[in-house]
Amino acid sequence: MTQQSRGSGPALQVQGLCKAFGPVQAAADVSLCVQAGETLALLGPSGCGKSTVLRGVAGLERLDSGRVEVGGRDVSSLPPEARHVGLVFQDYALFPHLSVLGNVSYGPRMRGARRPAAQARAREALALVDLSALEARRPAQLSGGQQQRVALARAVATGSPLLLLDEPLSNLDERLRAQLRTDLHALFARIGAGVLLVTHDQREALALAHRVAVMRAGRIVQQGTAAEVFARPATAWVASFLGHTNVLGGQNGMARLIPESAIRLGQGDCCRVTARQVTELGETVTVRHPLGALTLHLSARERALAQSHMLQLELDLAQVLTLPDDRESPPSVFREPS
Ligand SMILES: Nc1ncnc2c1ncn2[C@@H]1O[C@H](COP(=O)(O)OP(=O)(O)OP(=O)(O)O)[C@@H](O)[C@H]1O
User: Fold this and answer.
1) pLDDT at 135 over 90
2) DSSP string, 27-69
3) Which of 18, 43, 50 best tests ligand 1's pocket when mutated (most atoms within 8 Å of CB)?
4) Which protein residue's CA is at the shortest distance from atom 5 of ligand 1?
5) Using 50, 70 and 90 to split pLDDT, how confident is the model at 92?
6) Full set of structural domains in the chain with CATH
7) Which of 73, 131, 240, 288 is the most buried (most CB within 10 A)?
8) Mutate to test the pocket of ligand 1, among 18, 19, 24, 61 (most ligand atoms within 8 A of CB)
């Protein structure tokens, strides 16, 4: 099943989206673009405004300003049902009284398809998420992961050129998340729709998205491919948020990012180990280095290199990045009183 393409533009284009709730500027001048067949992850900590952007795109939130185009069509002033987007929210919001098939064919029915055509489309979508065998069940008779897949099938069955997913894996346990991450990756590749995925989970973004837009306090602070943003974070805050362990404070408002790949063990200077903690995968140690305190996650094999008080390591200084240190004073989410 491939999604309908409407017009010739990208799947989604957002320009200058702004939304305030009283004094809180939840989204401030957000612009982004999702091409057909591309997945963009909107990634940021809780409360940074990700859902506000998604809801603004879906038409569920009245915007203060900004323009939203879906498949080249300006939908800024249209109600949600006229925007033609497929939505998947944290709580799947399935209709409890309808069967799986009824839930998934509901979208096409609402868009005017006759029952046989709507059901055929729903069955295609259910096959994509591997749920054909369960089409007669009610949502209450499904596991959490299965309900999640029904919600995805329902969004896919709309045939929309754009899917909006808000933390789609958040209610699932770790094993199911890993499984669905793989399934989603394959599904997105097959259907060819543009996907805007909201998540606070860096691993989810890196696993699923072609590009990521990192959000902080209502603003997008960096956009790029997942690999680019991880390898070259724009600021110390972005680096820390993405999970880099060694972002050392420096002078003049600058910080140093020491990527894991810059640290070679078993050669170079002997550094004093100041703390060590056994983890499920090995051990985390902190060592005193001339540049500052470095934290290293050692595998079970590497643990053998760390003697009781010393660890020999060398830094490849060419890989060390100097970044503006914006961690201490996050930009305010509150608007200046006018
Ligand atoms: N209806 C509302 N009324 C008042 N404030 C709101 C409303 N919706 C969101 N906010 C505020 O706007 C800011 C952004 O919220 P939003 O839900 O977009 O963040 P988020 O990044 O999606 O967070 P999370 O990851 O926790 O879902 C927060 O400070 C939030 O408290």
Assistant:
1) yes
2) EEEEEEEE-TT-EEEEE--TTSSHHHHHHHHHTSS--SEEEEE
3) 50
4) 21
5) low
6) 12-231 (3.40.50.300), 236-324 (no CATH)
7) 131
8) 24
